[in-house]
Amino acid sequence: MSRIAYVNGRYVRHADAGVHIDDRGYQFADGVYEVCGIRGGKLMDEELHLARLQRSLAELRIASPMPLSALRQVLREVVRRNRVENGLVYFQVTRGVAPRDHPFPAGPVKPSLVITAKRLNMARIQQSAEKGVAVVTMPDLRWARRDIKSIALLPNILAKQAAREAGAYEAWLVDAEGYVTEGSSTNAWIVDKFGRLVTRSTGPEILSGITRTVLLETAKREGIEIVERPFTPDEAKSAREAFISASSAVIIPVVRIDDTAIGNGAPGSITLRLREAYAKVGVLS
Ligand code: PLP
Question: Which of 68, 119, 124, 232 sees the fewest Cβ atoms within 10 Å?
Answer without folding.
Answer: 124
